[in-house]
Structures are given as C-alpha cells and as structure tokens.
Design a protein that fits this description.
CATH topology of the largest domain in chain B: Serine Threonine Protein Phosphatase 5, Tetratricopeptide repeat
Strand order of the largest sheet of chain B: 6-5-4-1-7
Oligomer: heterodimer
Strand content of chain A: 35-45%
Number of helices of chain A: 9
Order of helices and strands of chain B: HHHHHHHHEEEEEEE
Number of strands of chain A: 34
Number of domains of chain B: 3
Radius of gyration of chain B: 25 Å
Number of domains of chain A: 4
Strand content of chain B: 5-15%
CATH class of the largest domain in chain A: Mainly Beta
CATH topology of the largest domain in chain A: Immunoglobulin-like
Largest interface: A-B, 64 and 81 residues
Largest sheet of chain A: 6 strands, mixed
Shape of chain B: flat
Structural class of chain B: alpha+beta
C-alpha cells in the first residue's frame, strides 16, 4: 500500500513536470486594448496575456506622458484538451488619458520566471469629452439625444414678473434603461422657476417612430429683469449598461464554453448593470423679457401681471357706529398673485380701517385662483351711507395695457348711537344702539370648513386651570431657591467679616477648642480618673497656648511654658503634674482635680 | 403569619383590586363619552356632540382635547361665545397648540371679533405665553441660585460675579413683568349671550352704552346683584347681566 502511494505521487509529479516543460517551451505573449479609440472621460482596458507560463515575475509598464495605467488584477486560466493541458495568465490595466491625441504604447517587457518576452507596440486614439454619450459594451457610441433629452416650448416676449406657464418634458428612449437622479434644473440668469414637484406625469410617446418614456412637469417661469436670457434645462440621470457576467464555470472557456448559461439573456438578468451618469439637457432657448410700458401706468399698480377680476363684499350692511364690519376683497383670475396687493382704502374721515389679512385659494397651481383680503373697517359716524368703491390695477400681457377695475360702492344703513362715540374707536370700543341682531356671519357650519379637525386622543384631565406660577411644586422650588440665596448671602457676609477681623476668627476657634477640651477634662474629673484628667488638661493647655503663641500644640513643653508664663504660674504647676503623671503615673485626689480644673478654666480663658 | 395579619392583607388586596376596577370603569366610560361625542360630531349632530363632551367635562374635568372638540362643536352650531370660551380654556391648558390657536382665530375672524391693534409692549409680552414667561423666570432664578451657591464654594472674579448676577436679575425682572402682564389677561370672561348689552348702571332699565358681541372677552371688576361691572379688551366699561358671561378660569 505504501509503495502504491509513492508510485502515484511520483507519477503525478512527473506529469506536472513534463507539462511544465511543455508549457515553458510554448510561452507566447499578447497585448490587446478593448477600444482603440475612446474619449478623455472614459478609458480602455489593456490586457496582457501570457500563454504557457505558470507565473509572471514582473511586467515593466511603460511611462507615457498623459497616459495612466491602473492595475485591475490578474486572472489565470487552465485548459485541458484531449489530455493536453495549457495555461495562461492575464493582467488587466485600465488605460486613461488626460487629453485627446494619438498615443502609442511601446512593447511591454514581461518576465515569466526567468524568460523575458515583449509585446508588440500599439497605437490608439483619445478623443474629447462627449456630453451625455456613452459607449456600449461593443465599443460603439450613442449620441445623447438617442438616450434622453429635454424638450421645452419656445418662448415669446414676456414682461418682468409675468408668470409664464411651461411644460418641461424629458424623453427617455425605451431602448435603454435609465434612472433619473435629479429633477430638471434651470440654467440661466434673469429667469426664475419655482421648485418642481417631486412626481412628474409619466406618459409614452413615439418620436420619429422611436418609443420614449416621457416625464412631464408643469411649472412656471418668470423673468426678473429685462433683456434676452438664454436658458437651458438639465437633469442628471444614469444609463444602466448591462454587464457581461464572468463565467462561473470552473472549466471557464474550456469544455463548457458554450454552456446555455452563457446566453446574453442571463447577462441582463443576473449580470447586473453598470451605472453610467448622463446629463440630460434641453436645447438652448431664449427667454426675452421686455420692460413694462411706463406710459399710462396707474398709481396703484403694484406689479400684478395677468388677467384678474375684482369683487368686494361686506359681511353685513346694517351696522352701528363703532361696530366693525368685515370687508372681503376677492381678486381672482390668473397671474402673479404674489404681487397682488390689497386695494387701498383711501383715507376717509368716515371710516377707520385696519390692516387686512390675505389668503390665497389656488386652483391647482400657483398662478390661478382667488386671493382674498379680509379687512375690518369701522364707521366713525352715522353720516356714512356707503362703503366707497375700491380699485385694483394690473397689467394685461395679452392686451399689452394696464387695466384698472373698480368695485361698486356698497350701501350701508347705520343706526343712530345712544351715546356719541369719542374719539374714533378701534373695533368694538364704541357704543351703539340698537343691539345687533347677529352673533357672527355664519351661524351654521358653513363658515368653518377650514377648521382644524377633532382631536381623537382624549388626553389628560385636570380639575382646574391653574397657571404655572401658582402650582405647589413651583412655589416650593422658588422658596428653596430663596432660602439657598439668603443662606449663601449670609455665608458670604460672614466670610467677609472674618476676613476683615482675623482675631475674631482666632478667638472663635480658641473658644470652640477650649470648650471641647474642657469637656473631656470634666468627663475625666467626673469619672475620677486622674491620669486621664491630667492628660486631657495637658492637651487643653497645649491647644490654647499653641493658638495664642502661634505654635504647634505639640511644641508646647514645660520648659517653653515656664519661659513664657514664669516658673510660678498656676498652669505650670498643672502642666508639671501632667508631665509627671505621664511619665511616672502620679495620681491626684478629687479635691486637687477640682482645684486644677477651676484654675485651668480661669487661666486659659484669660489667655490673650 | 397569624390569621389576623392574613385577613388584613387579604382586605388590602381586595380594596386595591376594587379601586383599580372602579378607576378602569370610570376611564372606560370617559373614553366612551369621548368617542360618542366624536361620532356625533362626524355625522353632523353637533348638539349631541356638545352634550357628550359637556358630560365628559363634568365627570372627568378639563382636557385640552375635549375642550377643543367641544369648542369646535359649539362653533359649528353657531354658538360663538361658547366656542370662544372653550377655545380659551383649551389654550390655557395647551398654550402652544396650533390647532387651538388656528381655530380660535378662524372663529374670531369669521364672527367679526376683530381685536384692537396691540401696542408695542403688548406685542413683546405676547411673544411668550404666561407659563413660558413663568418658566423663563424660574430658569433665571435657578441660574441665580446656582451661581450664588457656587460663589460660596468657588472664588470668582468681581466682574464675572456682578455680570452674571445682573444678567440673571434682569432676566428675572423681564420674566416677572411678562408673567404679570400675561396674568392680567389670564382670567377673562366670555360673553356667551347673543344679545348682551353694556349698561350704565346695574339695573335692567338702565341706559345702554352699547351692544357687546357674543364671544368678546371681558374682565370682570365687581358685582352688584345679578350684574357684573366689566371692562372689555378695548377698555370699554359697563354693567352686564352676569348670566351673559362665563369665566374662562373658574
């Protein structure tokens, strides 16, 4: 069995060796470019294939001015045909150029493990950038219009601020797969376009027999200054180029090269797609803006351009002096409603007016609808009989002239006041008789269509409405804050005071220390423990004298005490007794302890 | 555990369960009333919706959502005074709610309840609600307190100490003024009667100063019998029948 295994290994090695010799004998070198002509923004794939070699040591890539080679990896391939095995190695490079021109790649030297071979030189052409164009896998080029383009209408002459409705249509050839990456944008000065809505209308159209997917956006343009304004529309899209799949067969290119799985159908289904960005553009158009005529321009012209009608209504005609009246001014039609201003209510001694509120009810777009101005007006006296006419002026681009429209005067009936109003009041301030017979213009539900809908969540309940500053938690918090503030102020005052009078602080410390030390002494006296009594007495004296003489308490000794107080001082006697007790264990009678305690209290309290 | 303790614990658990059950039942009936009100409103039966919401308020108290729905129902049935009253109440519970603000403005506008031009100071103080001014003042007080406490522990420069204290106190002063100004308008009454009139004296036969519109806010000053002396938003003063009014904050 062992012998059989050795024989088999030897046989395999022999076959491999022989094959290696054979391969070494048939080494050949090829270099190919995927495209011999490509644009600057694209590139070509250079493939260097070594047939018959098991490895490549080095490939000496040439240096060409303006050309870059990016290594894209190595692949190997082994074919066994009729028992004969051949192998090949391929190195791929992406070739890109910085500028157009004709370039030549000189012979490339390849070292295949000791043997050096060279490719043949080859020339290729690099062209300029082609906008929107892309190359297919076969190397052919498509024109941008063939894939996608934008179509816009031609423009007539328009006025500054005039709203010009347009339809932007983007055509995508159904032959190609594409994704849009942005909405169409306007390129050009002097013209503005509102933000396009996200979802366009999608249709299909055939142009010259070619079917296109069409995306349409309805929008408007408005010139902001006079002059000729060239403009284009563009949008970003991606062309999806189907990628050929790499063979997944372990025998790739060999026996199963014609497998059904290599059908191009599977390239489109499983092969994925490369996204090639393309710029979809419209042809250039000129938006000519001509200035508005200056002759016959009404004084109340506010810049409104379009076709409008004016309607003025009052919420009632029977009123009292000082009682507000709602005047509704409706300007409807089509045009630049953003420039439509409320008709001015001329200064009138009979009426007091308030600033109007405006609302716009559009009819599907921003340039057709009704703009309503609601204004409160108050009759100042009972001599008024009508609301004066209001006028509105606009420029009609169709008629190329200014138009002024006026409302009819609205007759009103005023009741006489019981009390003369003085001075002219704001709404609801003045007196009036008789009582009004209404409590709002719309007693029914007709007036509140725009009302916010009901709440569906019940929410939390409270027993009463209490403002925040009356809630208990807040009052407690405020009280705490005040306490903290007062306390910190007092502490700061005390600190300042002590800083100003340091002797007070010293005295305080001394008193505090003396009290605590004497407490221990008294406890020892009460217990009748003379040793403890004398020890505590010694500590008390050291503490007090240390503070008085600015010394460390432990540094106070009998000698220093005698030096400072004199040898006959009563405290010296007690200190000496304490020293003697500490070293010799002397005891004191209760009477002596009492006498010492009294003396110590008196003397220590008297210390400066 | 002896039997006495056992019975005590059993009693406590039973009481707790009973209390929970009662609370849950009450919650369910409130939810039911709310749903009934919403359903009645949706089918246009505003009278029924008002009855359900009022019942809910009487049983459970005040909720911004319920008051808002109640106000909507009153507005839809043309009772502008009660609509304004309930919007005002809802607004005091949820000051920043845009739906409440929007509907109240709409009702006022549609009913001709135009407010007078606010002064510059009014505009400033109306930038924040009463509670927001209070909260701002509280924050200023807390900042002052913390800073004051910090100065006990840490030694800070004289300019910093004075600067921070002045800033906090100024903020406190502004917030206090804002709170005071906004509180003046916090407890108005609303005219809920359609034919209310202001009178010179507190008698039914007294001369009328003029009509006062339903939905107007007035500020009661004093009472006499069945009359209340009020001042309206435009400082017009007079006696009004007390039953024509309803206080926003009871």
């Amino acid at each position: 069995m062992q012998d059989d295994r050795k024989s088999f290994i030897f046989l395999v090695c022999l076959i491999v060796f022989c094959n290696g010799l054979e391969a070494r004998a048939d080494i050949s070198l090829e270099a190919s470019l995927s495209h011999l002509s490509f644009s600057v923004d694209q590139g070509a794939m250079l493939t260097i294939t070594v047939n018959g070699a098991s490895r490549i040591s080095t490939i000496e890539m040439p240096e060409i001015t303006g050309i870059t080679f990016q290594n894209r990896g190595q692949s190997s391939r082994i074919n066994i045909i009729n028992g004969s095995m051949t192998s090949s190695l391929s190195n791929s490079y992406l070739v890109q150029a910085q500028k157009p021109g004709i370039y030549t790649i000189p012979p490339i030297k390849v070292n295949t493990g000791g043997e050096i071979a060279s490719t043949k030189g080859m020339s290729f052409e690099v062209t300029g950038t082609v906008k929107g164009s892309t190359t297919n896998s076969g190397g052919g080029e498509r024109s941008p219009e063939e894939v996608a383009y934008i179509r816009i209408p031609e423009f007539a002459d328009h006025y500054p601020g005039e709203i010009v409705p347009i339809k932007i249509k983007a055509y995508f050839n159904q032959k190609y797969r594409a994704d849009i990456n942005s909405l169409p944008t306007l390129r050009g000065d002097g013209v503005v376009m509102p933000q396009l809505r996200e979802k366009p209308v999608q249709t299909q159209e055939a142009v010259n027999g070619v079917p296109y997917h069409v995306l349409s956006w309805d929008t408007t343009l408005a010139g902001i200054k006079a002059g000729r304004h060239p403009l284009t529309f563009s949008m970003e899209a991606s062309l999806l180029i189907p990628q050929k799949r790499r063979s997944i067969s372990p025998f790739g290119g060999g026996l199963f090269d014609d497998s059904a799985f290599n059908d191009p159908f599977f390239d489109s289904v499983f092969g994925g797609a490369q996204r090639k960005p393309i710029d979809v553009v419209s042809p250039e158009a000129v938006f000519n803006v001509i200035p508005l005529p200056t002759t016959n321009q009404p004084k109340d012209f506010s810049g409104a351009i379009g076709d409008f009608t004016l309607k003025v209504t009052a919420n009632r005609q029977d009123l009292e002096v000082g009682e507000p009246l709602k005047l509704s001014v409706e300007i409807s039609g089509s045009g630049n409603f953003d420039r439509v201003e409320p008709p001015s209510f001329a200064d009138n001694p009979d009426w007091k007016t308030y600033p109007p509120t405006a609302s716009f009810n559009s009819q599907g777009n921003s340039y057709t609808g009704v703009k309503v101005f609601d204004q409160a007006i108050v009759a100042k006296n009972d001599a008024v009989h009508e609301i004066p006419p209001l006028s509105f002026s606009y420029f009609d681009p169709m008629k190329q002239d200014y138009i002024s429209v006026s409302s009819a005067p609205i007759h009103v009936k005023l009741a006489k006041s019981a009390i003369a109003p003085t001075p002219p009041p704001p709404p609801a301030t003045s007196a009036a008789l008789p009582p009004p017979s209404r409590s709002g213009p719309d007693k029914t539900n007709g007036g509140f269509e725009q009302m916010a809908p009901l709440n569906v969540q019940m929410g939390d309940f409270q027993k009463e409405i209490t403002p925040l500053f009356l809630r208990n938690w807040l009052l407690i918090l405020v009280a705490l804050c005040i306490l903290v503030i007062v306390a910190s102020f007092l502490l700061q005052l005390r600190r300042l005071n002590l800083q100003k009078h340091p002797e007070k602080e010293l005295q305080r410390r001394k008193s505090h220390l003396l009290a605590s030390d004497l407490k221990l002494v008294e406890q020892a006296y009460t217990a009748g423990n003379s040793l403890l009594f004398l020890g505590a007495s010694r500590t008390a004296m050291q503490n007090q004298m240390g503070l008085s003489w600015n010394m460390a308490p432990t540094a106070i000794s009998l000698t220093s005490l005698k030096g400072r107080l004199g040898p006959d001082a009563p405290l010296v006697e007690i200190f000496a007794a304490a020293d003697a007790a500490a070293y010799g264990g002397a005891t004191l009678s209760r009477e002596k302890m009492h006498a010492y305690l009294q003396t110590m209290k008196k003397e220590l309290e008297a210390l400066p | 555990m002896n039997s006495r303790n056992f019975y005590r614990i059993l009693l406590m658990i039973t009481s707790l369960l009973l209390w929970q059950s009662t609370t849950a039942k009450a919650g369910a009936s409130e939810e039911q009333l709310f749903q009934q009100g919403n359903e009645a409103y949706s089918r246009g039966d505003h009278g029924q919706a008002i009855a359900r919401y009022e019942e809910l308020v009487a049983a459970a108290g005040l909720s911004p959502s319920v008051l808002f729905n109640l106000a909507n129902s009153y507005a839809q049935s043309g009772k502008i005074g009660r609509a304004v009253l309930n919007y005002e109440r809802a607004q005091r519970l949820a000051p920043g709610d845009s739906d409440i603000i929007g509907n109240l403005e709409l009702v006022r506008k549609e009913s001709g309840l135009f407010a007078g031009e606010p002064s510059g100071a009014d505009k400033v103080f109306h930038l924040l609600s009463l509670n927001q001014w209070t909260m701002l003042g509280l924050l200023a007080l807390l900042a002052f307190t913390l800073f004051q406490a910090a100065t006990v522990k840490f030694r800070l420069g004289g300019k910093t100490r004075v600067g921070v204290r002045i800033a906090c106190l100024l903020l406190l002063l502004v917030a206090g003024t804002g709170t005071a100004v906004r509180y003046q308008g916090f407890k108005p009454s609303v005219v809920t009667a359609a034919d209310a009139r202001l009178l010179i004296s507190p008698f039914a036969s007294a001369t009328s100063i003029g009509a006062i519109q339903e939905g107007r806010l007035v500020f009661p000053q004093k009472n006499h019998g069945s009359f209340t002396y009020v001042k309206d938003e435009a400082n017009r003063q007079g006696w009004i029948v007390s039953s024509s009014l309803e206080a926003v904050v009871r």
